[in-house]
Amino acid sequence: MPKRKRNYNTHHIKLTLSYSTQDIVTLFGVHKRTVHEWYTQGLPRIDDLKPFFVMGFHLKEFLDKRQGGRKRHCQPNEFFCMKCRVPRTSWENVVDIKFLNEKRLMIVGLCVQCNTPLNKISSPKKLDELHKIFVVQKIHHEHLSGSNSPIYNTDKNEVTGT
Ligand SMILES: [Zn+2]
């Protein structure tokens, strides 16, 4: 059977509702078999009692992840979140900027979805542009010579609650 990949509009999913297999069939107009395929692909069910039920947020997460698997370029205000595996914006578009050297700076944010630190490299030449795209909270000037400080020092901050 050829596999056609479809895009499902996950905005209709109510995150706090539970959906039966039949609800999902109705919601997306897919075959029951498709939903069962999703179960085998990792869509979490509430339990193994029939009829199966799925929490809305699990359904949305599963489909978003699946659809995010295809390459999508980040918008100027987006970062690729390593945890969500899709482009995400930072909380309220707030970022810090760190100058790494004369030619490079790093934009640092926090994933709006999962709180994972986000970062991407840009150029000081684009600074004006960045101020238009983001709410720049802090600008750090790292010392240019010698210190080879790790880029991902945001990891040292307390990021708990995963
Ligand atoms: Zn994320």
Biggest β-sheet strands, sense, barrel: 4 strands, mixed
Instruction: Identify the CATH architecture of the largest domain.
Output: 2-Layer Sandwich
The global form is: elongated
Distance between the termini: 38 Å
The quaternary organization reads as single chain
Largest sheet, order of strands side by side? 7-6-5-8
Radius of gyration: 20 Å
- Supply the helix-strand structural class: alpha+beta
- Poorly predicted tracts of residues: 152-162
Cofactors, ions, other ligands? zinc ion
What do the pLDDT scores average to? Answer: 85
Helix content: 10-25%
CATH topology type of the largest domain: Nucleotidyltransferase, domain 5
Order of helices and strands: EHHEHEEEEEHE
What is the overall number of helices? 4
Give your account of this protein's structure.
The protein has helices at residues 21-28, 32-40, 56-68, 127-133; strands spanning 18-20, 53-55, 78-80, 87-89, 94-99, 105-110, 117-122, 135-141. It has 162 residues and is of the alpha+beta class. The strands form 3 sheets. The protein has a 4-stranded mixed sheet with strand order 7-6-5-8, covered by helices on one side. A two-stranded antiparallel ribbon has the order 1-2. The longest helix is centred in the middle third of the chain and has 13 residues, at 56-68. The relative contact order is 0.12. Residues 81, 83-84, 88, 111, 113-114, 116 line the site of zinc ion.
